Amino acid sequence: MDEEAITIRLTHDQAFVLSDWLYDVMFQSDDLEGIVRDRAVWSPIYAISGTLDKTLSEIFMPDYGPRLEAAKERLRANLYGGADEPTAPGQDATAAPQAHQIERGTALNQGESD
Q1: How many Å apart are CA 21 and CA 19, to the nearest integer?
Q2: CA distance 101 to 72
Q3: pLDDT tens track of the chain, all 114 residues?
Q4: Is the pTM for the entire model greater than 0.70?
Q5: DSSP summary character for residue 81
Q6: Do 58 and 52 form a contact (C-beta atoms < 8 A)?
Q7: Taking each helix axis from N to C terminus, what angle separates 12-23 and 42-55, rounded to the nearest 10 degrees?
Q8: How far apart are CA 67 and CA 73, in angstroms?
């Protein structure tokens, strides 16, 4: 099998927020196994995290927290049209961006019976 590299493009804010989340999941909460049960997925997660850590200078800056919050607010505003929209787990799915409402793989469509 050809191991051709794949390029993923993120905005700087997306990369910064994702890097922070990955750090929390992988090192702070020690819950990567609880979130990602298939260890094969860990390889790309570690690759992405390492690439982000090498790329982002913000992770070493003393004003990391305020920069992170500003990046999150900009992303929320771009996604939901307003920075004050809820993004907590369990929020109404109809408020999620359309891309998050699309099911992938072999999942049944909502109108089909079992």
Answers
A1: 5
A2: 21
A3: 568 989 999 999 999 999 999 988 887 776 677 787 788 988 899 999 999 999 999 999 999 999 999 999 999 999 887 645 554 544 444 444 444 434 444 334 444 444
A4: no
A5: S
A6: no
A7: 120
A8: 10
User: What tokens were used for 5?
Assistant: 């590299």
CA distances from 68 to 6, 10, 49 (A): 27, 15, 16
Cα(66)–Cα(72) distance, rounded to whole angstroms? 10
Instruction: Please give the full DSSP string across 82-106, using - where no structure is assigned.
Output: STTS---TT--GGGS-HHHH---TT
Amino acid at position 67, single letter? R
In whole angstroms, what is the distance from residue 21 CA to residue 49 CA? 10
